[in-house]
Each structure stands twice: as structure tokens, then as C-alpha cells.
Amino acid sequence: TERYNTREAEPRWQAAWNDKRLFETAADDGRPSYYVLEMFPYPSGRIHMGHVRNYAMGDVVARYKRAKGFSVLHPMGWDAFGLPAENAAMEKKVHPKVWTYDNIAAMRDQLKSIGLSLDWSREIATCDPDYYAQQQRLFLDFLKAGLAYRRKSKVNWDPVDNTVLANEQVIDGRGWRSGALVEQRELTQWFLKITAFSEDLLAALDELPRWPEKVRTMQKNWIGRSEGLSIRWEIVRDAAHGGSPTREIEVYTTRPDTLFGASFVALSPDHPVSAACAECEPELAAFIEECHRAGTSAAALETAEKKGFDTGLRVRHPFDPDWELPVYVANFVLMDYGTGAIFACPAHDQRDFDFATKYGLPIVPVVAPEGTDPEALIADGAYDGDGRLVNSRFLDGMTVDEAKEEVARRLEAETLDATPVAARKVNWRLRDWGISRQRYWGCPIPVIHCDACGVVPVPDDQLPVLLPEDVSFDRPGNPLDRDDSWRNVPCPTCGGPAHRETDTMDTFVDSSWYFARFTAPRAGTPTEPAVANRWLPVDQYIGGVEHAILHLLYARFFTRAMKATGHVGMDEPFAGLFTQGMVVHETYRDADGQWVAPAEVRVAEADGARGAVRISDGQPVEIGPIEKMSKSKKNVIDPNDILETYGADTARWFMLSDSPPERDVVWSEAGVEGASRRVQRVWRLANEAAAKGALKGAAAPAEFSEPALALRRAAHGALARVGEGIEKFHFNVCVAASNELTNALSQALQGDAAVGEDMAFALREAAEILVLIVAPFAPHLAEECWAALGHETLVAETPWPEADPALLASDVIVYPVQVNGKKRDEITVPVDADAAAIEAQVRALEAVARAIGDKPIRKVIVVPRRIVNVVA
Ligand code: ANZ
Ligand code: ZN
């Protein structure tokens, strides 16, 4: 039998769309606008399945919205600066620019072969001088507005290669190339003042209803607003040496209620009092040195063993002049949070508990739920739950909140050296954003340093500061530093000798405003504000959850900073956010424990058990767990292979059919083959319906027989459900609904007998609806079928049809949905919905996802007309 030849058809339809420039964003013609954007890729050289999934989702939305009459902006670009290009330059001796643009060219071709409805006329790469020139303008505007500034800050320094290292180049405290122990050095660096917006960045999260709850929570934690008390502790004794530099130590605490459980005070190794004590205490100096080597970042400290050093200083308890506590320098206290000093309550803080256990310091519980034994509560570790105060004198019996308030009230009234002992304080975890990178392949920071004039912004008529191209990577370090012909310039102000800033910007800067640039990608200013305001915020942003914190936060900051400097008119960049799940695959290992790629394996099922062999030598291969596709485990499927074998539509269809978009999708050969058969089936049915059905544009007969009416109901029902499913991101439900219509159409086409006028009409109508609802998912297939049905226009320029309410199944059933026997939700479906459609809808339920957590769904049991049971 005849088959639909995807290899021949797909490029043909891509060319047809291109010729008509259907996806180029129209000038403002009064239609409502819709901006759908997927996170742009890093040009590593090849697209992977995660990209395919991400862009297929965005394309469904873009095609649907276009058909619904929106003026759609759906652009694509490249996050093209960054370290891998420099590594390639060092290892393969290719210039970062050549490497990057070659990769872009290869990936552009790959993306084009997927048939995405992108406006390629707006393509940008962040390494294009056109792009980073405007980024330099933004930087200078921020500088003028006080949103960019310089200060000293630490970097990772490789003492052998004599170079600054990015965090990802430090592996277990050592330089990735030299293997040398990395040191912390202070350099003057550039910062963007994200903290100017802390309050607003936090509060506005509550006004983003179309963002996933978990992403908003992650952002809240990252911004980290905390309310506490700053308490001054008087230094009363200095056993170790002559004198302390100050009379007091100020600590920040969020748990003033635990003050009677205090057992020591701890200072950051970078605290001025630590340094002062170290001056006459060589062992302490050595300890501080050791802390520095280990790295003092929050991440490094999280995992490190808690260690400390007794300074010999003693402080007096704020509520008891006779109670003296030791002062330690401790490696887990950060200098840049709170006051860089804490009081420790081991019974109720795990870090303090570990520390106290190690150094034999008191552990006194002061909070316990009523009716529990406080000592038993802390037998194996700190208790950080709620309760009432015990062992705490005048606080005993109070709730935690009451005790916090009581301590604050009393200490605010006490004085030390005529000022209050304590003050209420709000603290933020969020720090200003250090953007200086000592790297070549990034956006140059457009300032000049002059001995006489200081930091001078590069004047407008000298922008952009272009990267020099004639650079070498034969030595470690930043090539910009040793390129004197680029670096040395006259001072724009006094004309004297001066030099360029050689730091470039963190590549997160590049991705913090590209969505705005897409609205006017060739403008001679960063944006055209009126145009930007028409499109922004992005209606639907789609990407991986790995960007839930930094990228999204930086973009939210940039939008505010661009508003403050007149480039856009809104605060929030993304009105809707969707974070998609990963593409995962089985893993395989041979008898030697080596990973084997799926392409080299044949999996077979015998007697219900699955087994695998290596194709080349027939040796058995062990089937391992399903994991994220990764090079290290070799369980990667190359999209190119899939596109060649099955075509783009099958890949897209499978990707969107198998699981709800927010969950992981398991890539399987069987699944792809199933999708491929579906594609062929739709094509065959469309051709049969074209032969057997009414002519294009035939008028509806006055009367319909029951079978014709049933087919019409199936078609209009599917149409309504697909539209609703796309709006809700239930793509798998949409695929199930179109499969159902495929089945109905197939049934109606059975038999050789000629059909009546009413059935002929219904056949054409059902086939056309099927083609139109399949189009966002499998657009090439849809065009091929549309043409077979006699249309000369393209599906891509055809409006989304309206479902006839009179034909929508009014008979619906409500199914209770149980997970492992417990009711979690209910769904409403047409009486005649089949089990597969019901199952798909159930799998998409958030309540189900929540109830089963990380566990896979083992089975979905549909008891017709009664109940659905999910077994996890
Ligand atoms: C006493 C105490 C008792 C604390 C207790 C906690 C539990 P958040 O919520 O993040 O603001 N802390 C304060 N400054 C610190 C620093 N620079 N480095 C490391 N830890 C620091 O956390 C505030 C709590 O973290 C503070 O409250 C302080 O320990 C610690 F049962 O004070 B707490
Ligand atoms: Zn000067």
C-alpha cells in the first residue's frame, strides 16, 4: 500500500511556509498580539531531545494562537557567549567566533528540519556585535542610574596558571587544568544592583498566577527575606591576649526565643574581630587561612565539616551579667550575611549541634511541644520545630512567637554604652550580582580606566567596544589582558594614557534581556519602547526548571532596570511560565559494566520479560534504570537519527503524546513506532475521506442519520477538547482526543458501499477537523492531508474552526479519580470517551502528580462509567 513519504514531504511544506513568509511577525494590524518564547539554546553544536521537546511545545502554542487570529511573535536566537568556546579554542585551536558560528549554522539547519513556525528574520546571537553593542548601552544607562557599581570581591585564583577561574572550573578546590589548590583573591569587580529591587522582586511573585508554584517558592527562598533581631554582646574577658579591637560583638538571629539555650558565640573567619585576634595568635591565623583555602561560598560551607577555633574572648549573656560564653571563629559563619557573627543554640540548630558535639559545648533544649521530654527531643540532633519555651526563666511557657516578641521588647529597652542592646532587622539573602568575568568570549564592559580621571564610560560615539579578533589562546588567562593594542587607549576625558576594562560580562547578562531585543531585533537602540510595550511581557515562556532561579530572577531584575532607564514600560518579563520535564531513556551496560548506547542494542520481549543484546556481537546487555539522557551514560538518542528515520512530525507527536508536558517523557523505540503508525493512519484516512466524502465546500444537508450525526459529534467534541487542552498545556490529552477522532473516522469509512449525502458531508467535515487539530502537533502531515482534501491554501494560514455547541456531547460523566485507592480529584468526560482518552486526561491531572510524587504510574484502571484508579 501507499505510504506517506515524510522525507520528501517535510522539506516541501517547510519551503511552502517560507515562500509565503507565514511565520514572519506582521506589523501591528490591530489583531491582538501573542508572544510565545522558548528559552534560547546555547550553540553547543547539536540539538538534543530536550530542545526538540521544548521547541515542539512552543510551536504547538504558536501555531494554535496564530490559527485563533492572534498576531504571533515566535522568535529564535542563540545564547552564544561563554566558556565552552574558549575551551574549544584552547583544545582544538579554533577561534571562539568560528567555533560558535559553525555550531549555530549546524543547529539552525537542525531546527529548521523540525518545521517550527519561527520568525527566522528576527534571529539574534548574543555574540553578534549588533546585540552586544546594545547591551553595552544598557550597561552604561544602568551605571548612570546607579544600578551598576564597582567594589572589591573574591575570585578563584589558580596560582599555577595565573588565572581567574570560573566556579565550574574549580573541581574539589583545585584548578581544572593545573590541579593546583585554588586561592581566593580580592579583585575590584563590577556589580549590578539587584538588591535595589529585593522587596519588589519578592512581592511581585504573588502576582504571577501563571507561573508554577514551585518556581515562585524557589525564587522566594533565593531572595530570602528574614525578620530577626540584631543583638550586641558585650566582651567581658580577653584571656588569650592583650585586648580586643572592639567592646562588643553584634550578632543576627531569627530565633531570639532561644537565647537561654545559647552556648557560644561564633564569628566568620573574615570578621574583623577574628582578624584582630589572629594577629597575636598564629594558630588562629593558620585556621583562618585554612578556611579561606576551602572556599567560603555558601555552597562550599553547606557540605564541609563544621570546624572552629576558640579565640579566648568571652562575652556576657544579654540577660545575665554572670553568664559568660566563649567566642569561636567558625567555618560555617558567612561574613556577607547578617553581621557575620551568630550566637549558637545547639539544641535547635543542626550546624550548632554538630559544632557543640565536636567541641564539647553545652546543648540545652529550650523549645519543646507540650507533653514531650525536651531532652529526648534532641537525642539525635537539633529540634527545629515549634513548641513552648522551657529552661528559659521568664520565657517559660510562652509560644515561640511570644518569646521572640518578649526578648525583642526587653532588649530594645536595655542599653549598652547608651544605645539599645538590640534592634529588629530585616535581612535578605539576595546579594548584588557580580558580573565581571576575566574571560575573552563575552560582552566587553564598556569603560576605560584613567589614572587621572578614574573610571570613564566609553562615549556613545565610540560604542560598541568590539572584541579584538586577533587573539591567541596559547597561554592561560584572559587574552584581552595581554592585547596591548586593544587595551591601551587615550582617555576620552583628558586624552592621557588609559586602558580599557578587560573584564567581560557574565553570560547571564546576555540572556537577561534577549526577549526584549526580539521585539525590535535590528533597532539602533536596545529596544523600541513602544514596540516592546506592545509585545511584552512574553505571554508564554517555556523552558527547563534548571533555570527556575538565576535566569528568571536576573531577567526580572533587568526588566525593572530597563524600565527605570526608559527602555520598557513593565516590571515583569514573563506573564506565563511553563517548565517542561526532561527526556529520559533506559540505560544499558555490557558484561564489563561499560555503558552501551541504545542504537547498539536490540531489546526483545520473551515470556513477558524484557531482555537486551548488543547488535554487533549478540552479547547480553543489562537493562538499567531510566535516566536523563546524558553523554556519560550513553543513553542519548540523537534527534538527527529520529528525523531521518521517521521525520519531524513523528518525533514531535511522540514527544507530546506520551506524558503530561511537565513530567519526564520516557523515550522508547516502541513509542516512536506507535507515533509513526499514527501519522500514516491519519494520512490514509484523510485520503479515503477525500475520495468518499463530499466535495470541498459542499453545503450541509438538512437531515443527518444517526451514524452521520455520531461522527459529527465525535469531530466537534475532539475539536473543543484539543483547543481547551492546548490552552491548558495538556498536550497529551489533545493527542488522545485526536486519536479518538481518528478511530471514529476509520469506523465510518469502513465498507465499500457508497454513502449517503449526509454521511459524505460528515466524512469530509470530520477529516478536515482532524487535519486542523493535528496541525499544531504534526504540521507537515496536516498540510499533506489538507492538500489531499483539495485545498489550495495552507493549513498554516487557515483559521481554527469553531466547534458547533449543538454537536458537543451534552451527556457527560463525572469520574472520581483515585490514587492508590484514595480519592484525589474528578474529571468530566463525554459519555462515549474511550478508556485511552480518559487515561490521558487522568495522567495530566496535577492532583495525581502531587499524590504520587516521584514514583512512576504503574497502571491506570478505568472502570467504565464508574471510577478511575491510578496505581503508583
Ligand atoms: C540563633 C539561632 C538559634 C539561630 C536557633 C537559628 C536557630 P535565616 O533564616 O537564613 O536568616 N546566621 C545568622 N547569620 C549567619 C551567618 N552570617 N552565617 C551563618 N549563619 C548565620 O537564618 C538566620 C539564622 O542563621 C540566625 O538565627 C543565625 O542563627 C544564623 F535555634 O541565631 B540563629
Ligand atoms: Zn583621563
Termini separation (Å)?
42 Å
Helix content: 25-40%
Gross morphology: globular
Question: What amount of the residues lies in strands?
Answer: 15-25%
Bound molecules: ligand ANZ, zinc ion
Task: Report the structural category.
Answer: alpha+beta
The main β sheet shows up as: 7 strands, mixed
What's the overall average pLDDT, rounded? 93
Number of E-state strands:
38
Radius of gyration: 33 Å
Residue windows where pLDDT falls under 50 for at least 5 positions: none
**Please, how many helices?**
27
Family: Belongs to the class-I aminoacyl-tRNA synthetase family.
Pfam family, one: tRNA-synt_1
EC number: 6.1.1.4
GO molecular function: aminoacyl-tRNA deacylase activity; ATP binding; leucine-tRNA ligase activity
In words, what does this structure look like?
By secondary structure, the protein is α+β, with helices and mostly antiparallel strands. The protein has 27 helices and 38 strands. The strands form eleven sheets. Strands 10, 11, 12, 13, 14, 15 and 20 form a seven-stranded mixed sheet that branches. Strands 31-32-33-30-34 form a five-stranded mixed sheet, covered by helices on one side. A hairpin with a 5-residue loop joins β32 (609-614) and β33. α3 crosses α4 and α19 packs across α20 (648-657). It is globular, with a radius of gyration of 33 Å. The two termini are 42 Å apart. The model has no long low-confidence stretch (mean pLDDT 93). Bound molecules: ligand ANZ and zinc ion.
